[in-house]
Specification:
CATH class of the domain at 98-267: Alpha Beta
CATH architecture of the domain at 98-267: 2-Layer Sandwich
CATH topology of the domain at 98-267: Muramoyl-pentapeptide Carboxypeptidase, domain 2
Strand order of the largest sheet: 7-10-8-9
Strand content: 5-15%
Order of helices and strands: HHHEEEEEHEEHEHHEEHEHHEH
Number of helices: 11
Bound molecules: zinc ion
Radius of gyration: 22 Å
Number of strands: 12
Helix content: 25-40%
Oligomer: single chain
Largest sheet: 4 strands, mixed
Structural class: alpha+beta
Amino acid sequence: MPMPFLLFALAIAAPIRAQAARSIGPFEDEMVAAPVPDDEDEGDEADDGEEEVAEPGVTGPEIKYSADLPDDELERRWKDDLQSLGSISVGFADQGRLINAARMPLDDAWILERPSLAYGTKEAVDALINAFHAVRKQFPSSAPARLSHIGNQDGGYLRPHHSHQSGRDADIGFFYRNDRVPGRGVRRDRLMDPARNWALIRTLITGSDVQVILVDKGIQKVLRDWALANGEDRDFIDRVFAKGHHALIQHARHHKDHFHVRFYAPRSQELGRRVQPLLAQRPEQNLVMHKVRQGQTLGHIARAYDTTIKAIQIANHMRGSFLHLGQQLRIPLRKPCTHCPLPPPVVVPPRCLPASAVASASSQ
Ligand SMILES: [Zn+2]
């Protein structure tokens, strides 16, 4: 193609691409982060992975959040009335799946950018509904919040993410000043609307059980400064924006245009642990998630789990045998799983609340 014409073609193609990316999601930074087979490295996982080890001092399968279901009742319903158990989050955010997903409903206060990926645990869906309604109540003329990916109906691997597998992660687009969503590649820290974004984050943190929010540190700074300048208690803000490995809000690459929120889903997670020994009683649920490593083929994986290539292809809706490095496959098992990864018991920490809220709660 002659050079001038090529440039012209690129010039008209670019805005069309940008439009499409904005309207269908996922957010552009995550588009950039899409794993390319040769390029995806383990190091990326630090962005939104999940710790696979129990915290010190946490031991044993304590039943707290699903205590209404004694073991025999759980086993009976697992076999005969699976639906009645509600959402079940199996495994980890970055190596897991979802049973009986809750679907994010439709509402004026938000837009589902990917309705087919709007499935999560009941806890996560309820928390999102609550937070979006709270922002709408505070800012009645606001454009709707923009929810991108939560996860597949049955969870599991979702390109381009590492996590979003167990129904506890959600990507939420920023609110922008005058509701004008900027084009690709534009810096967002001065264009996003700190008032509504802070209202959203504040409600999520104080009104639900957030495990972590991933967002770029430049965005964090704008929110923090705005919150302090608008009367938030400094001690509360210092706790919300504390640094460190277990901080509530953490910096992550590729998070300059959206919040990635991971919720605790205590009941769903606890049920996920408790049904692990029961999986083999339902053949369609007798699955383990496997992460594809360098050099592995479907043949290797089928042999390692004593199953067949065909069974793996069917379980993963695969036509061919192409695998991505780091991809998570559902592996149908023929016998009870003896080495399935089991997350530690979930223990939801106290919520991060401003001093005024703590004082009023304790005086009641
Ligand atoms: Zn995400």
